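Please check what follows.
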Amino acid sequence: MHPLLWFALAGALRLAEHASAAPADPRRPGSPFGNAPALRLIVETVPGLRPVVYLLSCGVPLPGRPVALYAARTPAPPDGWPTDPHEVIDLNQLVPAGTTTGRPLPVARGWYLPLRRPGQRPLLETMRAAADAGYSHLVIDAATLTFTVARRRHRHPQPC
């Protein structure tokens, strides 16, 4: 079973609405989806610690200050992440080792999650309908980057 990442649907919907309404960030040339509205799934890892997982909007300007939506629960270091991230930022290569704390800095891996995929119902439309129907969480399968929604954390997710 792949690790499931649970995000508050209301927060994910705010990020998706922003990504849909704002132009894509031109500073992210590695996006495989061009100027398509998207969310970014970021996983920061430091050896020996649980990963930190959050969502960002790809739209600019940012809504006020940068807003990250953190996963409700981060699984133990998973072996099921997709093998090819769309971007990798290794802070250890950008900042001399030991500059701030003497400990390793995170390596951030990012994946673009388009809000519209050919042949599928737009994710933003699905999220709006799920919120209106009382669903509370957006669930992302960490290995396949597929979405489901759930009413509560203890129920099985429903496919989007």
